[in-house]
Amino acid sequence: MNGKVSTRRARPAITLWALVLMMRPAQMLAVALVYALGGVMARARGVTPEMGTLLWGLAALWPVAAGIHYANEYADAETDALTERTPFSGGSGAIPMLGVPRRLALRAAWAATILGSLVALAGLAAGTGTVFSLVILGLGALFGWMYSLPPLQLAWRGWGELDNALLGGFLLTLYGFSTAAGYVDFRVALAALPFTLLVFLNLLATTWADRRADAIVGKRTLATRWPPRRLRRLYLLVAGLSYALLLALPNVVLPSPVKSASLAALPFLFWGSLTYTRRRQPLPSVAAMAVMLLAQLVAWWYAGG
Predict the structure, then answer these.
(1) Angle at 64 between CA 59 and CA 65, to 5 degrees
(2) What share of the chain is helix, strand, coil (3-state, %, to 5)?
(3) Which of 3, 76, 263, 287 could cross-link with 268 by S-S, CB 3.0 to 4.6 Å?
(4) What is the pLDDT of residue 103?
(5) Is the domain covering 15-303 a CATH 1.10.600 domain?
(6) What distance lies between CA 141 and its chain's CA centroid?
(7) What is the pTM of this model?
C-alpha cells in the first residue's frame, strides 16, 4: 500500500463494487444474526414474534448498519491505506484498492442512514414498529457514527472498543428483542452481557492487527496506547468476567441450555489468550465470538420450546 487516498472519479461498476465491499457483507450477516439472537430470546420469554414486525426491524436495521460501516470507511481511509489487511481487520480496503474517492463513503453513509431512519419511522407510523426499538436504533446510529467521526470520534480516543462492543453485542441484542416483543426486559439486558464481553475481546484483537497504521495517523486505540502486557491482562480479565457472569446469572436470566452451549467458545478463547499481542492474526478471538453467538442462537431457540 502506498498510503494515498484517491480523489478521482471511478467507473460506475467500480463504484458499485466499492459500495458493496464498504458495506462489509460478512459484518452485515453478523448484524442480522445478533438481531436474530434478540428475537429468539423474545420467543424463549413466551413472545410469538410477527414475521412482518421482524422483517420491518431488519429492513430498518440493515441500512443504518451499512451507514455506520460507510462512515467508518470514510474516517479510516488513511489508516486502511497503510495497514496490512486481514479478513477481520483493516476495513474493506475498497478506497485504496479500487481508487474510489473517499467522499463516496461519506455520501453513502448519509444516504443509508437516512433510508434506514425513514423505514423505521414508516414502520412506527404503520403500527409495525415500537417506540422502544426506534429509540434503540437511534442510539445505535448515533454512537455508531460517533465511533469514527467528530465530535466524539471515540475510536480515536481509546473508547472505540467499548463503544463498538456495546453497540454490536448489547444494544443490537436489545433491538432484536424489543422489535419482537414490543418492550425491553431487564433480564435480557443481563443475558446479553457475556456475549458483549466477547465482542469486546474481538475488538481488542482486530485493533491490535491495525495498531501500527493507527499510530501513524494518530488513531489512539487501546492497542496503540497500552503496552502488550497490560493488554493481555485486560484480555484475560474480560474473558474471565464473561464466563463468571455466564455461570453466576440465574437460570431465569440465562437458561441452563444457553450456559452449556456457550462453553463451546472456551477453546477458541483459550487460543486467543495465548496468541493475543503475540500474533497479528485476530482469528481466535473472532472465532470465540462467532461460536458463542451461534451456540446461543441455537440454545435460546431450544429453550423456547
Answers:
(1) 100
(2) 75, 0, 25
(3) 287
(4) 94
(5) yes
(6) 12
(7) 0.93
